[in-house]
Amino acid sequence: MRKKGTAGGLEAVDALEAKALPLSPRSIPSGLRLSIRGRTVHLRGLRRPPAGILRWLAILGPGLIATSAGNDAGGIATYTQAGAKFGYELIWVMLILTVSFAVVQEMCARLGAATGRGLLDLIRERYGIGWALLAVVVILIANGGVTISEFVGIGAAMELLGVSKYIAVPVGAVLIWYLVIYGSYARVEKILLLMTLVFFAYPIAAIMAKPNWMEVARGAFIPTFRADPAYIVLVVGLLGTTITPYIQVFQQSSLVERGVARRHYGPERIDAYAGAIFSNLMSISMIIATAATLYVAGHRDIETASDAACTGARDGQFGEGAVRDWTLRRNPPGGSGLAAGNSLCR
Amino acid sequence: MVMFSQLRRCDITDEQGRHAKLLDLSVALLDSDYPPVTNLFFLNDKNKKHWLPWDQVQKIDLKARRISVQDLKASKRLVAGSLGKDVLLGDGILDALVLDLLNRRATRANDLWLEGDESRLELRSADTGFSGFLRRLSGGRYGRISKSTLYDWKYVEFLRGDPQAVRNGEGYHLRVARLPPGEIARLSDMLPYLHAAELITLLPDAKAVDALEVFSPERQLQVFEELEEKQALALLTLMAPDIAADLVGRLPTKIMRHYLARLPEVQSERLIDLLRYPEDTVGGIMTNDVVSVRANLTVAKAREKLKEPLKTPDFVFIVYVVDNERSRKLRGLISLRNLITADDDQPLEEIMDPYVTTLSPLSSAKEGAYRVIDSHMAALPVVDEEGQLMGLVTVDAAIVQVAPPSWRTQAPRIFS
């Protein structure tokens, strides 16, 4: 640790040669030049957040994780069903949902920054203990269901890769438990952010499926309505799986956890918007991928995501790589499990 | 003696047989340790919110769930300002964040315990237990009253989550100000940042600054930005220069310049001098509020001279001896103990230690920190190339530098 020794402490301090004192002259940055009280100074000790692209990357976090957690096993099943059953017809619903989703997410982020409190805290303070309890119970039930579907997803996906679900599910559970209990928020956030990279496989799959882009555009911008109950159920399903309460609770809590204060909220809204847009682009990619393959080939009764993967693979619509991608992709690993844990802890 | 949740289920009836549903009660928090109930609030027959002073109450019959008053028509309509400084029990205190000072924790009031009778009913304690929660949800059927979860209101600080509340003259017990700064900081960590800012505004400036110095840097900034400019300036003036420089250095440039231009000149110059050093250098972690004395004095004269300078700095255990106040060239050091125990007429040069390990302001902060820790001294002085005393790095600042991130805010800061 110590470099060349100095005579400091060995000789009387005033007997030392002036030059002997500094260890190694450093090249120091020029800093911010400011004139204060008529004195021009270079301030190099400012603790500033990173500038440029790094600054925007530093902002991304809660929004991206929260919304990506929405693309879980249940979500994927709904999106693939929408694509397989009705082709590109339901993409317009996703566009409208993106706007609503972004607004809701941004509102929660703003509430978190403006009050420094989580959503459930605010419900309790504003509407009383009864409504807060109702919200907690509803979220617990919804999260219980979501967590079960996540583990079903993990088990099914790992079985496609040849790993028994009796091994995959307990290992997954222990990993998530460890992250929730022992992982610091910053570390968990980094891990989950890294995992959102997996989602880039969706648009790649959509492009590789060679969809008819004119049809995609028509499905996106010309709304169609059908009196078919299956159609209505899927529209409601898309709404339910895209805007889920735990995502809002997680978004607000994580913003509070990050210590974003109201005076610094401005740029943070980008995270909320970016998260909503990114997550729904991935959902739309899923619809396009299944529409371009399963719908076109006439396989329109898909119950789960693994059905989609297996049917596609059997009929050669997805390459072997695509099946592997699919099985991996359908497990945003425990994002909503963490969100569930987080809402419980809050 | 009654729980607020039970009282709230009562109807109000008057001598003419009129009925109304009790909505809420207000208390005068400023009045005493146990705030008295001042008014009853209810919906009148036209579904408008009205209030009636507590002195109208004639009888409370909990079994019949009835509060008898003289005349419901004597009530007034609730408009903005009707409450004055009073606080509503149901809408204000119940479910709000409160500080349980006995257990040093932030919690929420699940129910409230009132004591007294028709003539004077007082808020005596807050129920923070699960039974209070259960009692409210079951309409009083379940939820045994347990003394172990009732906290004496005298030791409960009710926070509003509004840093402006103190300026608006809202009432507080202020017992929180009796806690040591570290405990106040730990309490604030359990609170949302607006509550933490409110907590800081409650405290006298000297205590507030001690607590603020212990906060994590992120929390410090959140809280500081919520303070009124006058208080913010007062706290920055009192704050240890190294911590103040770190805080000011995190503010947006415009605001930083604003504060640096308005601080008292001595403190402003200190902060500017510290901000000249990058944060990963010894200069970036040193403090420049150093007690120094001229070498050519006798012990008695030095004691006399140091009376004033010893009053404010955080680090006073070592006095640095310099050749004169202008050039401040370091000659040696004297511990405060030696200075007090030495003979009056001994020259300082005779009792000072001239063999001083020094640090250079531009060497690495980590390296400097290890040298301080290895030296087992409370601090090492920082001198420039000319041997001029620039400041010192205390062992606290050194530990913060080398400790794992999760420890940094927990490491005690005694000397700076």
Write the layout of secondary structure elements.
The complex is a heterodimer of chains A (346) and B (416).
Chain A: E1 32-36, E2 39-43, H1 53-59, H2 62-69, H3 73-86, H4 91-115, H5 119-127, H6 129-160, H7 165-182, H8 185-195, H9 201-208, H10 213-221, H11 229-242, H12 245-257, H13 268-297, H14 305-314, H15 320-329, H16 335-345
Antiparallel strand pairs in A: 1-2
Helix pairs in contact in A: 2-12, 2-13, 3-11, 3-13, 4-10, 4-11, 4-12, 4-13, 5-6, 6-7, 6-16, 7-16, 9-13, 12-16, 14-15
Chain B: E1 2-3, H1 4-7, E2 11-14, E3 19-27, E4 37-43, E5 49-53, E6 57-61, E7 66-69, E8 76-77, E9 87-88, H2 89-93, E10 97-100, E11 105-108, E12 111-116, E13 121-127, H3 130-137, E14 150-152, E15 156-158, H4 181-189, H5 193-202, H6 205-214, H7 217-224, H8 229-238, H9 241-248, H10 253-262, H11 265-275, H12 282-285, E16 292-294, H13 299-306, E17 318-322, E18 330-335, H14 336-341, H15 348-351, H16 365-375, E19 379-383, E20 389-394, H17 395-402, H18 405-408
Parallel strand pairs in B: 2-7, 16-17
Antiparallel strand pairs in B: 1-12, 2-3, 3-4, 3-9, 4-5, 5-8, 6-7, 10-11, 10-15, 12-13, 13-14, 17-18, 19-20
Describe the structure.
The complex is a heterodimer of chains A (346) and B (416). By secondary structure, chain A is mostly helical. In chain A, 66% of the residues lie in helices and 3% in strands. A two-stranded antiparallel sheet of chain A has the order 1-2. Chain B starts with a strand and ends in an 8-residue tail after the last helix. Chain B has 416 residues and is of the alpha+beta class. Chain B is elongated. Chain B has helices at residues 4-7, 89-93, 130-137, 181-189, 193-202, 205-214, 217-224, 229-238, 241-248, 253-262, 265-275, 282-285, 299-306, 336-341, 348-351, 365-375, 395-402, 405-408, and strands at residues 2-3, 11-14, 19-27, 37-43, 49-53, 57-61, 66-69, 76-77, 87-88, 97-100, 105-108, 111-116, 121-127, 150-152, 156-158, 292-294, 318-322, 330-335, 379-383, 389-394. Helices cover 33% and strands 22% of the residues of chain B. In chain B, a hairpin with a 5-residue loop joins β4 (37-43) and β5. At the A-B interface, β1, β2, α5 and α6 of A face α3, α5, α7, α10 and α11 of B.
